[in-house]
Amino acid sequence: MTADAPFPFEPSPARGRVLVFDSGVGGLTVAGEIRALGPRLSVHYAADTGFFPYGDKSDDALRARLPVVAKALVENVRPDVFVIACNTASTLALAEVRAALDIPVVGTVPAIKPAARLTETGTIGLLATPGTIRRAYTARLIEEFAGDKRVILHGSLELVKLAEAHARGEDVPPEAFAAAQAPLFEAPGGDEIDTVVLACTHFPLVRGQLIATAPRAVSYIDSGAAIARQTIRVLPARNESGGQGGTACLTSPPEREEATVRVLRRYGFPEVQFVAIEPIEMTSAPSAEP
C-alpha cells in the first residue's frame, strides 16, 4: 500500500498481556480475534485440560472449580486481562471468577443480540453445549434481545469433540458435521432458520464444515470479534506489556496431551507449560443431566 493510500492500515495502539482461557482448544478462535484486533498485545492461552469437557460437568462442580483454576492461571501468567473464552463457564460462573481476581475479566455470551438484528425470517438457531442450553442466563438473553423471534436450541457435545478432532488434524467425514447439526434444522420450525448462533467457542473452528453440510444457506455468527473489542476496551492504561508472542498453559501434564500441544503450536503457542491445580471438592461430579 502506498503512503497516500486513502485507507492506510493503522494497527491498534493497545499494549498489554492478555490470557485467554477455555476448557480445551476452542478458545483459540477468540485468541485469534484478539491478536488480529490488537497486534501489539501479548496473547497467552490456557486450557483446563484436566477437567475437559465442561459441557458434561455439573453446575456445582464448575462453580467450585472455575475461580480456583482462574486464580492459579493468573498467578502463573500475570496478565492484565483474563478472557473466559467459553460460553459454558461464562454463563455459569462469570461473577465468581471476577470476585476471585483483581484484574478485568471478559466473559463470552451467545451472540443472540446480533442474530436478532440479522435474521430476516425471524427464526434463529442456537448451537451450543447442553450446559449453555440449559442455563437461565441463556434464557434471559433470548428474552431480552430476541423476545419477538423464534429461537430453536440444540446442545451438542459431539460437535465439540468433532471440532477438537479437526483442530488436531484428524480426518473427520463431512457426514459427521451434518449429523451433529441436523437436529437444529429438523426441529419444528427449523426449516425457517436463516441465522445460526455458534454459542460455543469450539464451533468457529469448523465453521466451514458447518456451512458446507448445512441443508441450505444460512448465516453462522459468533462472539469472537465482540470479545476482542471488549478486551481492548478494558485494558488498564498502565499494564504489564509483554511484547509479542505468548505461552500456553495446561492443567494436565503436556506429555499427556500431545495432540493438544501440537494444536497450540500450530496456532502460535510454541511454549506449553503445566499449571498444577490443587484437588477441588466436587471436581469429579457428573453432569446433572440424565
Give the secondary structure arrangement, pairings included.
Blueprint: E1 17-22, H1 28-37, E2 42-47, H2 59-77, E3 81-84, H3 87-100, E4 105-106, H4 112-118, E5 123-128, H5 130-134, H6 136-145, E6 150-155, H7 157-167, H8 174-186, E7 195-198, H9 207-213, E8 219-221, H10 224-233, E9 248-250, H11 258-266, E10 272-274
Parallel strand pairs: 1-2, 1-3, 2-9, 3-4, 5-6, 5-7, 7-8, 9-10
SS class: alpha/beta
What letter string, H or E per element, gives the SSE order? EHEHEHEHEHHEHHEHEHEHE
How many DSSP helices? 11
Average pLDDT level: 89
Word description of this protein:
The protein is of the alpha/beta class and 290 residues long. 40% of the residues lie in helices and 15% in strands. The protein has eleven helices and ten strands. The chain has helices at residues 28-37, 59-77, 87-100, 112-118, 130-134, 136-145, 157-167, 174-186, 207-213, 224-233, 258-266; strands at residues 17-22, 42-47, 81-84, 105-106, 123-128, 150-155, 195-198, 219-221, 248-250, 272-274. Strands 4-3-1-2-9-10 form a six-stranded parallel beta sheet, sandwiched between helices. A four-stranded parallel beta sheet has the order 6-5-7-8, sandwiched between helices. Helix 11 links the parallel strand 9 and strand 10 (272-274). Helix 8 crosses helix 9. Mean pLDDT is 89; it is low at 1-5 and 283-290.
